[in-house]
Amino acid sequence: MVNPAVVQAAAARLDAPPRPLSPMAQLGRKLFFDPGLSASGRMACAFCHNPDHAYAPGNALPAQFGGPGMNLQGSRATPSLTYLERTPRFIIRPPVRFDPDEGGTPKAARPAVPEGGMDWDGRAASLPDQASGPLFDPREMANRDGTVVLARLKATPYANEFTAVFGAGALDSQEAALSSVYQALARFQIEDRSFHTYDSKFDYYLAGRAQLSARELRGLKLFNDPQKGNCAACHPDRPTKNRLAPVFTDYEFEALAAPRNRALAADGDPAYFDEGLCGPARKDLIERPEYCGLFKTPTLRNVAKRQVFFHNGVFRSLQDVVRFYVERETRPEKWYSLHGDGTVMMYDDLPPGHRAGIDGSDAPFNRRRGEAPALDEQEIQDLVAFLETLTDGYSRNQTITAAAGNPGK
Ligand code: HEC
Ligand code: HEC
Question: Cβ of 280: how many Cβ atoms within 10 Å?
C-alpha cells in the first residue's frame, strides 16, 4: 500500500468536509425516520435500518417482525444500508471473468454473470426502485396500497415540502407522490455522509494514518491469498483504478449454499426454499435453475457490527461465517442437517435439481471431504481481526495522537 496516489485519495476522503443535504435529501431523511408511514404506526425504515448499527438492526433476530400488528416475521436478514451508493443497476452480463474497475481477481468463468441491484436477490434494480418494497410488504410497513400511503403523506407535518421540492402537483396523485417518496429516500441515502463515511481503521491505514496490528495484517494477507481465504475474489479490498475506495463487494451473485436456518419461521415449512435469483421473492428468473441459490455478494464494510450473517441470518458470529467457508466441503456434517441414517443432507437449503449454481470451484470451496480446511483456527481468528478493521468511525473510537503515525494497536 505504498502507491502515493492511493494514499492521497484515501486521505482526501478522510479530510473532505461534510456537505449539506439538498432539500430533497432532507425530505428523504424525514421519510426515513417517520413511523407514521406504516400500517402499525410504529415502523419507520430506521426501525430495521438503525443508524446506530450501520443502518442494520441492533438485534440478533435472523429476520425482523413487522406488519400491522408487528408480529409477522420476514424471511431474510436485514442488510446494512451503508456503502450501497456505487451499486450498479441489476444486469445479467455476458460472460466476463472479472471487473478490473472494482479491483477483482479472476474467477472461474461462468455462463453469464448477474450483478448489481438492491436486495439479496437484486430484484429492485436501483435505490429508488427498492423503496416500494418495504412500504407495501405485508410483513414490513404493510400499506395496503398507494391511496393509503398518499393519505399518510398528506397528514405528515412536512407535507408542504413535497410541493416545495417536487412542484405543485407532487401530492395530487398516487403516482406522483410515490415517485417523489422513492426519489427522496434514495437521495437521502446517497447524500448523507453517515451511509458512507469511509473512515474505518482500514481507511486510515490506506491513508497512511494508522497501522494494522500484526494479527490484522496476517488476516489481510489470508483475505487476499487465492490459496487461503480467497475472499478478495468476491469482496475486493483494493481501490478501483479511479482510486475510489474499496467497498468489499464485486456486486456479483454467488450460490454459497448457506445451511437452512431452523430459527427462521419461514423455514418451518419444509416446502419453502429461498432460492435468491430464481425466486420465490424474485419472479423473473423462476424458470432458470442455473440461477437458483444465487445471492448478492454484500459489502464487508461494517460487517463486524452485524449480529446475524448471510441472507437467512443463519450464522451468529464472524468466526462461524469463516469456519463455514472453509469447512463446507471438508466437514459438511458440521453445517448441514443429517438424514435418519446419519448421512449428510448436503446443501440442505436448496431443493435437489436446483444446486447446479453452487460455487465449488473457487477457493476455499475447492477442497474435498476429509481434507484439511484452507484455514486453521488461528488463521480464522486473524481473518476476523482484519474484518473488524472495516467498521466505520475509527477516529471516534480511538484517540488519534498528534503524531498520528502509530495509533494502531
Ligand atoms: C421490517 C424491517 C424493514 C423495514 C421497515 C425496512 N427494511 Fe429495508 N430491508 C429489509 C430487509 C429484510 C431487506 C432485504 C430484502 C430482500 O433481500 O428481499 C432490506 C433491503 C433494503 C435495501 C437493499 C439493501 C441491499 O443491500 O441491497 C434498501 C436500500 C432498503 N432496504 C431500504 C429501506 C427503506 C428506504 C425503508 C423504508 C421505506 C426500508 N428499507 C424499510 C428490512 C426492512
Ligand atoms: C465466490 C464469491 C465469494 C467468496 C470467495 C467469498 N465470499 Fe463472502 N459472500 C459472498 C456472497 C454471495 C455472500 C452472501 C451469501 C448469502 O447470503 O447466501 C457473502 C457473505 C459474506 C459475509 C456475510 C455478510 C453479511 O452481511 O451477512 C461475510 C462476513 C463474508 N462473506 C466474508 C467472507 C470471507 C471472510 C471470505 C474469505 C474466507 C469470503 N467472504 C469469500 C461471496 C463470496
Answer: 12
